[in-house]
């Protein structure tokens, strides 16, 4: 199942329901945008469920919801809300009509109590104009103004018959108990709960309160006394009050709770695909690339500075090393050419998406939009998938860098054994949705990446670090019970990788290296289940010619890369282009293209060419016509005496 189900006390939101639920709502909202593949989201889900259960009586004031950004249905909405990392926590004020995308909580402390207290603070940030319907005042009791302020208000209850109980929680100013008890009792009728501060000495003295927190109760029959609870804790105060005779839960509360939209169409049944453990599946790599390009990166509205550089380097490495189907490789190469030929320092991601989606309809470019996890499929839709495919992709790339030493020539990465790992490090640190994973990975890189001196070292470094992560996550909640985290490759996959020395298990790293080169080599990648398999077979493991940028491909031929903006490797590839093989990309008659944001149809383009040719012919004709006329005119009008 997905991380959250209808049985959980959270409201599951999706693209269909998110906006109409949280914008202009009568209550405030605290949403968690998560990704079901993100280990930290998985680990955090029990806390979030516990929090939602703990504050479910606060629903008239503030509600807890979740949005799964890994669900295809929610890709666009998560992009629109600018969700870059998971989990992202967003608050939405009640009655907010500004259509904004909420306020992000960036604190590192996500403990239940901290988040609950933040919810209280957030509620108090409302003004009296946008105060959530049904939420009682949370400020210290001062509703009756008089010379003595709040004391008089509460003291005026003494000896007075009322229709309901009034409970007053005495506490220090920074304590949350009073406000939490007020919110806990919100759906109950027959009593009012107020908060008073220990700084109100007069009131404390009059009611005989000597320590805080404590509670004082005014009965409807005008009697009053200190509330006698076993422990002065929120739960004890709240339970005591809920059990008072005559105090009932209001009938209508449940109707204010949001209906769970029938699993949101988030089907949990996925057909199981048979696969071999000893193979790598192209479908996983392509699904991973699809998710990376169209979902993970697409949450960034624009790419500039370091982000743009990281993206360009990532595309360079993948375009040159990805042993995929020609259609995918061509798409990556086209993207790379386009990126390096653009003089822009800032690129709107939508423009990149247009290319990834081949809006220009260049023949033979295609990356499937279908997600097909095979070797990376999980026993439930919430497990494995994307992070598994990302590991697989980078293992494949480290092996490709070793198997095809010339592949990165003229890219600025030639002879750099760290090309793939540094690119991965920067990608994971900059774009990977699981920020905590990125931090751990960065720590590992800082610790030992400088020890990598060859492409073989790079293969082994990534293998070691992946095993380190496996060891850390063994038994964690993100572990799929069907695919337990182990030190990999297991003896059944590679018996010679394992040895024993003095009764201790040791790796035979030479064997591990040989195994990794075979396992992640192009010939071990199965095309089974790949939606891209039709356009052409996967590229073989042989060295590939370096592509010479095809000038026809430049979206804007007038724009030459400025010396500063064109990356070093591109400048080199331009000058060394002679003798290099053509990428083989053929441009079909294009039905349309976009130049500087203006769309041109095929008819527009044909008209331009036609008019251009016609005006040339016309000008030439005019030139010869007048020249001929002037020659004839001169002798006829020659007057020697003038
Ligand atoms: C860079 C990175 C850092 C991450 N950090 C964290 C983290 O800090 N906390 C967290 O909860 N999750 C983290 N994740 C996610 C986590 O590592 C898993 O990817 C996720 O839990 C899915 O696990 P899985 O069972 O599919 O196997 P994965 O660990 O994703 O492995 C995928 C496949 O790679 C192969 N494999 C396994 N081990 C190795 C190895 N040592 N060398 C080569 N191939 C191997 C196996 O065939 C396996 O099926 C991270 C992911 C990435 C990409």
Automatic annotation (TrEMBL):
**What CDD domains has UniProt attached to this entry?**
PDI_a_QSOX (cd02992)
List GO terms (cellular component aspect): extracellular space; Golgi membrane
Q: Which UniProt keywords apply?
A: Disulfide bond, FAD, Flavoprotein, Glycoprotein, Membrane, Oxidoreductase, Signal, Transmembrane, Transmembrane helix
Spell out the coiled coil positions from the record: none
Any idea which GO molecular function terms this record carries? flavin-dependent sulfhydryl oxidase activity; protein disulfide isomerase activity
All copies of the ERV/ALR sulfhydryl oxidase domain together span 379-488
Biased composition, Polar residues: where in the chain?
Answer: 548-560
The Thioredoxin domain covers 1-128
Task: Name the residues that span the membrane.
Answer: 609-628
EC number(s): the record gives 1.8.3.2
- Known catalysed reaction(s)? 2 R'C(R)SH + O2 = R'C(R)S-S(R)CR' + H2O2
Protein's GO biological process: protein folding
Q: Where is the segment annotated Disordered?
A: 526-586
- Annotated InterPro entries: ERV/ALR_sulphydryl_oxid_sf, ERV/ALR_sulphydryl_oxidase, QSOX_FAD-bd_dom, QSOX_FAD-bd_sf, QSOX_Trx1, Sulfhydryl_oxidase, Thioredoxin-like_sf, Thioredoxin_domain
Q: Which cofactor does it need?
A: FAD
This chain's function reads: Catalyzes the oxidation of sulfhydryl groups in peptide and protein thiols to disulfides with the reduction of oxygen to hydrogen peroxide.
The family this protein is said to belong to: Belongs to the quiescin-sulfhydryl oxidase (QSOX) family.
Q: What is this protein called?
A: Sulfhydryl oxidase
Protein species of origin: Sinocyclocheilus grahami
UniProt lineage: Eukaryota, Metazoa, Chordata, Craniata, Vertebrata
Q: Which gene encodes it?
A: LOC107552641
């Amino acid at each position: 199942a997905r991380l959250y189900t209808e049985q959980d006390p959270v409201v599951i939101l999706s693209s269909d329901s998110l906006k109409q639920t949280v914008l202009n709502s009568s209550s405030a909202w605290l949403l968690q945008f998560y990704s079901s593949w993100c280990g930290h989201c998985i680990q955090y889900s029990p806390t979030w469920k516990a929090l939602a259960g703990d504050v479910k009586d606060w629903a008239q004031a503030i509600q807890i919801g979740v949005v799964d950004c890994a669900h295809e249905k929610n890709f666009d909405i998560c992009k629109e809300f600018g969700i870059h990392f998971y989990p992202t926590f967003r608050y939405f004020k009640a009655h907010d009509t500004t259509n904004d995308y909420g306020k992000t909580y960036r604190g590192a402390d996500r403990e239940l109590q901290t988040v609950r207290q933040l919810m209280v603070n957030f509620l108090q940030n409302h003004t009296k104009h946008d105060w959530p319907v049904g939420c009682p005042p949370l400020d210290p009791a001062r509703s009756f103004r008089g010379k003595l302020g709040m004391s008089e208000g509460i003291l005026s209850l003494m000896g007075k018959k009322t229709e309901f109980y009034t409970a007053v929680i005495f506490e220090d100013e920074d304590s949350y108990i009073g406000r939490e008890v007020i919110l806990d009792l919100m759906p109950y009728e027959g009593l009012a709960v107020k908060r008073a501060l220990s700084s109100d000495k007069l009131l404390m003295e009059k009611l005989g309160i000597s320590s805080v927190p404590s509670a004082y109760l005014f009965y409807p029959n005008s009697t009053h006394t200190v509330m006698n609870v076993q422990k002065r804790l929120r739960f004890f105060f709240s339970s005591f009050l809920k059990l008072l005779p005559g105090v009932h839960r209001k009938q209508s509360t449940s109707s204010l709770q949001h209906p769970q939209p029938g699993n949101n169409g988030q089907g949990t049944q996925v057909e199981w695909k048979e696969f071999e453990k000893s193979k790598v599946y192209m479908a996983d790599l392509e699904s991973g690339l699809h998710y990376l390009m169209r979902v993970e990166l697409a949450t960034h509205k624009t790419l500039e500075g370091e982000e743009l550089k990281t993206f360009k380097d990532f595309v360079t490495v993948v375009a040159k090393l990805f042993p995929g189907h020609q259609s995918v490789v061509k798409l990556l190469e086209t993207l790379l050419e386009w990126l390096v030929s653009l003089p822009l320092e800032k690129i709107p991601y939508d423009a990149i998406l247009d290319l990834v989606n081949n809006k220009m309809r260049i023949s033979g470019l295609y990356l499937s939009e279908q997600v097909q996890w095979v070797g990376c499929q999980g026993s439930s839709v919430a497990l494995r998938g994307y992070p598994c495919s990302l590991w697989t992709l980078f293992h494949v790339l480290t092996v490709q860098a070793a198997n095809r030493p010339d592949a990165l020539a003229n890219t600025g990465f030639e002879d750099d054994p760290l090309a793939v790992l540094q690119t991965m490090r920067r990608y994971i640190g900059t774009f990977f949705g699981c920020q905590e994973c990125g931090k751990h990975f960065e720590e590992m890189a800082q610790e030992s990446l400088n020890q990598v001196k060859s492409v073989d070292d790079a293969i082994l470094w990534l293998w070691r670090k992946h095993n380190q992560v496996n060891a850390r996550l063994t038994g964690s909640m993100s572990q799929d019970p069907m695919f337990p985290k182990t030190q990999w490759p297991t003896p059944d996959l590679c018996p010679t990788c394992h040895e024993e020395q003095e009764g201790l298990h040791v790796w035979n790293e030479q064997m591990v290296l040989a195994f990794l080169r075979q396992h992640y080599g192009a010939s071990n990648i199965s095309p089974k289940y790949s939606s891209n398999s039709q356009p052409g077979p996967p590229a073989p493991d042989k060295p590939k010619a370096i592509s010479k940028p095809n000038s026809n491909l430049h979206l804007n031929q007038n724009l030459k890369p400025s010396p500063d903006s064109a990356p070093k490797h591109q400048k080199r590839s331009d000058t060394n282009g002679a003798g290099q093989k053509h990428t083989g990309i053929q441009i079909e008659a294009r039905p349309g293209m976009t130049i500087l944001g203006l769309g041109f149809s095929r008819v527009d383009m044909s008209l331009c060419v036609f008019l251009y040719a016609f005006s040339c012919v016309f000008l030439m004709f005019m030139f010869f016509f007048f020249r001929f006329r002037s020659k004839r005119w001169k002798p006829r009008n020659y007057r020697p005496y003038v």
